[in-house]
């Protein structure tokens, strides 16, 4: 699944060239898809988590869902301000994303958290790369992404607190896939 490059906008924010705006729009399109996907993934976990830690995880995720939705809105509005079109449809997300669907169904809370740790790692790595690119072009877009990076890192910290031993060992330290993370974290049915 390849990301498409967007056409150069006819206008953009003052002080930014339309060519630079196109680069930012292209960058933000994938961030929008990632945030919409994360929102849906968090709700999926919220609905499919079971086990003794159910209520803690179930209730921990709702504020994350709300904040991620706000992040998506902020990215979509920045895209529009830059002269782009915020494609928020499921078809656009599926067509342009560079990752697969979340792969864990009904599972115990710690297994889902193990998988979410891997998801957050992938998202955070992509946001950091986007911050680098935006930083070379536009401080306003860079600032937006840095703010989101801080919140996403905090959400991963919340997840990892459930996966860390008192000695500081992270159960998912070697996990590279959601299934690895889920297996390291808990029981997957």
UniProtKB/TrEMBL annotation:
<dbReference type="InterPro" id="IPR009078">
    <property type="entry name" value="Ferritin-like_SF"/>
</dbReference>
<comment type="similarity">
    <text>Belongs to the Dps family.</text>
</comment>
<dbReference type="InterPro" id="IPR002177">
    <property type="entry name" value="DPS_DNA-bd"/>
</dbReference>
<dbReference type="InterPro" id="IPR008331">
    <property type="entry name" value="Ferritin_DPS_dom"/>
</dbReference>
<dbReference type="Pfam" id="PF00210">
    <property type="entry name" value="Ferritin"/>
</dbReference>
<feature type="domain" description="Ferritin/DPS">
    <location>
        <begin position="26"/>
        <end position="164"/>
    </location>
</feature>
<dbReference type="InterPro" id="IPR023188">
    <property type="entry name" value="DPS_DNA-bd_CS"/>
</dbReference>
<dbReference type="InterPro" id="IPR012347">
    <property type="entry name" value="Ferritin-like"/>
</dbReference>
<protein>
    <submittedName>
        <fullName>DNA starvation/stationary phase protection protein</fullName>
    </submittedName>
</protein>
């Amino acid at each position: 699944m390849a990301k498409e490059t967007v056409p150069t906008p006819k206008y953009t924010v003052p002080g930014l060239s339309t060519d630079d705006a196109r680069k930012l729009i292209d960058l933000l399109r994938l961030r929008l898809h990632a945030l919409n996907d994360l929102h849906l993934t968090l709700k999926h976990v919220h609905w499919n988590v079971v086990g003794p830690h159910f209520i803690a995880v179930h209730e921990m995720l709702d504020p994350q869902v709300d904040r991620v939705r706000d992040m998506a809105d902020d990215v979509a509005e920045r895209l529009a301000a830059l002269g782009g079109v915020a494609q928020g449809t499921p078809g656009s997300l599926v067509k342009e994303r560079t990752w697969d669907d979340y792969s864990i169904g009904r599972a115990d809370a710690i297994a889902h958290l193990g998988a979410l740790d891997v998801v957050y790692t992938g998202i955070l790595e992509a946001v950091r790369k986007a911050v680098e690119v935006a930083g070379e072009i536009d401080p306003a877009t860079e600032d937006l992404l840095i703010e989101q990076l801080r919140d996403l890192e905090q959400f991963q910290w919340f997840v990892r607190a459930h996966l860390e031993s008192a000695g500081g060992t992270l159960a998912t330290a070697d996990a590279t896939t959601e299934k690895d993370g889920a297996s390291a974290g808990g029981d997957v049915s």
